[in-house]
Each structure stands twice: as C-alpha cells, then as structure tokens.
User: What shape does this take?
Amino acid sequence: MGALSSDATSLLCSLLLSDHELMTSCPSNVATQEIQSAVRFLGAVIIMPIGDGVALIDDSGETLTIDNITRPKKLGLVVLQLVRLGLCGVLTFTGVRYLVGTIALSDLILNMLALEFVLNLDELVFACLAPLNFKTMIPKVVPLKTRTARSFSGIDLFALVTLLATGLAVVLVAVFMTLPQQGLFKQGRDVLCAGELDFVYSKNGLGQFGWTETAKPAQPPGNTTTAIAWDQVPWPVGVVQTSIPHTRRALLGVLTRNTDCKYCYQGYTYTPGETPPGLAARLDDCCLSKQAHFPSVAAGRFSIASMAIETGTMATAVGNANCKDTLRPPAIRSVETSYTDDNGAGDGVNIFRAIVADHVLDESCEGCPPQLPLCYEGQCTVPECWHVLELGLCTKDDESGMRARQYCPVTCGCVNPVASLPLSQDFNGCPTECAQLPEHNEIMERVARNCSDLDHTSGHFRDYIKAVLDIGKEWPQSLKLLVDAVYGLLMAYGCDAVPAILSGEWVKYPQLCTSGGPLVVKDVSFFCPASCGCMTPGACDFQCLP
Assistant: This one.
C-alpha cells in the first residue's frame, strides 16, 4: 500500500503540474517514505510494554523478539523519533525551496539526487560505522508489533491519509513556491528580451541620453505604427532601471516603439493647431525618445559612438558655446516656428532641467511629476539656475556639479574670475567662451589695475578657500593632505601665507599662483595678485598693469 501511495502521488503530480513543477514538488515522495517509517516506529514504541530491562527473546536461534523496554529508553526513543520527524520536515522544506530556484533540468535532477542522499544519510552511517555483530543481529530482530491498521471498505486509512497529505503538500508547494518562482523567472526573461531590442544608446558629456536603431524596424502589414500600448506591455514599467529618471522615460519610449509622435515642443506633447502651452503640456516618453534619436551608430558627429567618447569639454563647447544660463524661467512660444520660447530657451531646455533635477536627492516631495522635476524645500518645481546655486551644486566636484556649471555658467561664477567658484576650468564644465566675454575681461582689467590682495576673512576669497577644502575631502589621500596643508594656511593667514608656500618655507606648492598644478582648482592669483608677484612677467597667468 505504501508503494501504491507513492505511485498515486506521482500520478497526481503529473496531472497537476508541468515538468518543472513535477520535478520540484515530487521530492515529497522521499520525505513521505521517511515520515511513514518514523510514524510507524513511534506507534510501535508507544504500545511496547515497559519492563525492568530490554528483554530479547531468542525464538529459534534464527530470530529475536523485543518483548519489553525500560521507561527511560522508551522516552528516549520517542524523543528521538520526534527529532527525526522535525529534521525530515526541515530538510524537505529547504530542499524543495532550493529545487524551486533551479532552472536547468540537469541541475534539477542532480539536486534531487542530492536531497535523497541527505535524507538517507543515516542509513549510510549505519552501514559503514555500526559494529559487525550489531549489524548481524539487527536483521534477526522481528519487526515491532503495531496497532492493527484501520481500514474502510478495504482501504487502508493510514495510506489514504498519507496520499491526501502528500497531494496537499504538492499543491501547496506549487501554489506558494513553484508558481511564484516561475513568475520571477518569466519577469527576468521579459526584462532582458521584451520590447524593441534592435537599438543602442549612450550618454554624452552633457548627460543627455541618445539612441539609434541597429536594424530597420519592421512595420506590420496594414499598420501605420509599431507602438505598443501601455496596457499591452508584457512586463512592468518599473523593471527598466537606470540611474537617471529622464533617461529611463526616454528608454521606455524606445523599448515600446513609442517614438513616432509628430507634435513635440521642448520634450512636451501638444495638440496640433494650438499654441504649445509650455508647462501645461504633457511630458511624453515619445517626445523624449524622439528628441534623443541619433542618425547612426558609428558614423558622423551625431552618432552613438561619438556620443559615448564625448568629454565634458567637447560637449560644453557645442551645447553651451555662448556661456549662457540655459535653465531660464519657463515660458510659452508665441511664434510656433521660432527655435526658442519667449525667454530664449531652446527645444532641449526641459531635458536640461530634468538632468539637473535628477541629481538633487530630496525625498521630501515623495516623487515629482516630469513637468515639475525638482524637489526644492518640499515642493515640486521647475529648476532654474538660482536653485542650482542655492543647493550648492556649483562647487561640487561630481556629475551634479559638472551639470550645474555646464547649464548655469553665469550663475555659478564661470564668468567672474574673483568669484568663489574653484572649478572654473573648461574640463570642470565651465564653457571656454566664458573667459572671452566682456564681463570677464572687465573684471580681469580691474584686478590687473588694482593689483591688491583681498581680505581672507570675508567675501569671495573666504568662500573660495572653504569650497576648496570641502572639495579636497573627497580627493585621494595624497591630494587631500596637500589641500589641507596649503589651504589651511590660506584660511588662517590669507595672502600673507603665499610667499611661504611658494618658497616651501611652510609647505611647498609652486603652482599656487598659476594654473597647471596637481590641484585642479582656480589659482589664488586673482585674490592675491600682490603676494603672488603678478607684476613680474610669468609669475601669474596674467600680469598686473603699472
């Protein structure tokens, strides 16, 4: 009847479950056999008579019968069988969970064999380590007496209960373990394989997302679009993860082939015939994807290959060649054919805003809509350059600071040589053109004519020193020590410390008053022209006027 129970369980598995579910759920057959053995032995021990000792009766020299057993030994055997049942349950549960996470059929079979090996480990230990006379005596012992098996209409009730319990265990394993795990497998497959895959993408030196096809998209016969409706996307939208939210939205548009929208304005969708209403319009993944489309993979200036190797200096020279603040206040476009809106912002301004907002880690808003991407003081708003300054992004030596200086060079101080901005070089995001503007030249002429040191206890000079010390905290240890030594002296003594630093009397740093040193920050000659000796040709990058 026990064999019949196992066969019936296997049949139930094959009827209810697929191949993978069958393989992962039916190891319960092995556990069923072990549990049956433990339960029957436990029942035999319970009804065994109690005596003064273990009585072995030699029936005929060929067999031995256990007639009675002491109370402590009986209690010990009961506890031992309970431990056996507990271990069997734990091993079965953990084994099935392990099998559920196995994908390859060959690994599945191997792991099933390993599970059975663990469950039969006690038999192997007995066969290898038990004394020879004990192993010889055990086969002679008559099986313990058990209660008469109850039956109903000729059906063994114990076997029936075992069959039903095993079937229930199989169903529970399938519902709560196998099927959810299969769902995870399918979701992982869809993340890798669903949607449009014939494209490549990258990010340029301005942090902008770009993509292009690697194969010409096929149009279904009789259809004019290949876009996939959101309710037909075979995988959750949230599985597409990138470090930048605006990139994720544009990438979703590409994956769902939703890139053929016709009416886009600064990344926003509008109705034909109406004046684009600026922020009142709807930010659509389609428009983001369309504006990020590049013509080729490897050929030409506007290709994914060129985009991938583009440095911040190269990108700034093209994207903000005039050294203007690009995050201007939002406005409508009165003339639909104009390239810019009424505040002079071009088509990419909303993408610029999204890129800057992506680098502000403020969760007090609990998520901001794409039209108002920046979380500032608990409110969702449109980022402008004054936000960048207030948030302290201009002086950061990371990607957020790079984007702040690229998109807001005037506000950050790229034009003003005596501003507190230490990272004013082109490789730090400040456009090269900033040093050619009339405002910059006027300030430089004033510095050269005055040629006097500034007070280090207030104003831009003190803010500049503090900014360099803050930046140096994130640099490699050797440079951090140099920053602490040099700018610690400037913080304490101001321009009076410059001669001692140049000569090495306190700490030697000969590039303090010129560019090109290991500390890639603006030199102090703009704040200390007299102490730097800028009257002497070559002492500074500029020369004081007589």
Summary: Residues 426-526 form one domain. The radius of gyration is 39 Å. The chain is about 45% helix and 5% strand.
